Amino acid sequence: MRDTAAAAIGKGLIALSRSLGAEERGLALLGEGNTSADCGDGTFFVKASGSSLASLDEDGISRVRLTPILALLEGEAIGLDAIERELLAARVDPSHKKPSVETFFHAACLTDGGARWVAHTHSTALNQIVCSRLGAQPFLRHVFPDAIVVCGKVPAVVPYLDPGFALAQAIQAELRRYRGAHGQPPKLVLLENHGSIALGQSAREALSIALMAEKWATVLQGTYALGGPRYLPETEVDRIDGRSDEHYRRRALSHEESGASAGRSEPAGADG
Ligand SMILES: [Zn+2]
After folding, report:
1. How many whole angstroms from 170 Cα to the centroid of ligand 1?
2. How far away, in angstroms, is 194 Cα from ligand 1 center?
3. Burial, 77: exposed, middle or buried (Cβ in 10 Å; 0-12, 13-18, 19+)?
4. Which of 5, 104, 108, 177 has an alpha carbon within 20 to 30 A of 37's alpha carbon?
5. Can you give the pTM of this predicted structure?
6. How many CB atoms lie within 10 A of CB 180?
7. 240 C-alpha to ligand 1 centroid (Å)
8. Cα(32) to centroid of ligand 1, in Å?
């Protein structure tokens, strides 16, 4: 890939990250969360270790080769020293900082997850549910149409594991199971006791999924205060999932050429 094209993707990732990290959104604080974007040439940008989404700049992203990361994921569990060494060795440019330890699950999301842009956040509202006794279960049915359109009919779910290599392998296994069961990758992955991952075809779509998941969680919480969710009938969910005008809205979200357009001024949720 020409460096100018890669540079545009890097800029887009910084814009997406800052948008996700804006404090008032409650999606990520301090060093929480991370993001990645596929360069389309066997490399991807990912947030560097120790940087913050809200204030991310060019120093805070690293460009990494996909192949060595995927090869490690297919193998046995590796220790912390080896993880550090391999992350440093996978950098395209040795002047870049060490990639986030979550680089492994980003590689899985950009391949088995079918995504081009990945947004991992620790949303407060969403965590209030996935950290509860109910875990991800309240998200397995739907309460309003826009969550179906933006976040997909069914989220993938991964039980709690210590963040790092083992979690990345579990996410990869769930993405593969999901594709086998549903014939397509998910748009939203719920990580119990941890947060979520939005899988977008554009930066704008990744942001929209993260924001809609946050809204969905807030709505669900409200329903529990008033006797519990009144779920839509599955036939209605299927009808919305299959509607041609909703497909149009999905395409508009996912096909927009993203780059730096992930600005906060356009949260780009569904419009109906
Ligand atoms: Zn996390």
Report:
1. 14
2. 6
3. exposed
4. 177
5. 0.89
6. 8
7. 31
8. 6
Span from the CA of 238 to the centroid of ligand 1 (angstroms): 31
What pLDDT is stored for residue 164 in this prediction?
87
Q: Which domains does the chain have, with CATH numbers?
A: 3-261 (3.40.225.10)
The C-alpha atoms of residue 151 and residue 142 are separated, in whole angstroms, by 10
The values of phi and psi at residue 48, to 5°, are -80, 155
pLDDT, the chain, mean:
90
Structure tokens at 162: 């210590």
At 53 the three-state DSSP class reads coil
* 78-118 pLDDT tens trace: 888 999 999 999 999 999 999 999 999 999 999 999 999 99
What residues contact residue 22 under an 8 Å CB cut-off, 6+ apart? Answer: 54, 264
Per-residue tokens: 25: 């959104």
The CA-atom distances, in angstroms, between 221 and each of 60, 85, 190, 192, 224 are: 35, 43, 16, 16, 5
CA of 2 from ligand 1 middle (Å) equals 31
- Give the tens place of pLDDT for each residue, 25-68: 989 988 899 999 999 999 999 999 989 999 999 999 999 999 99
Distance 120 CA to ligand 1 centre (A): 6
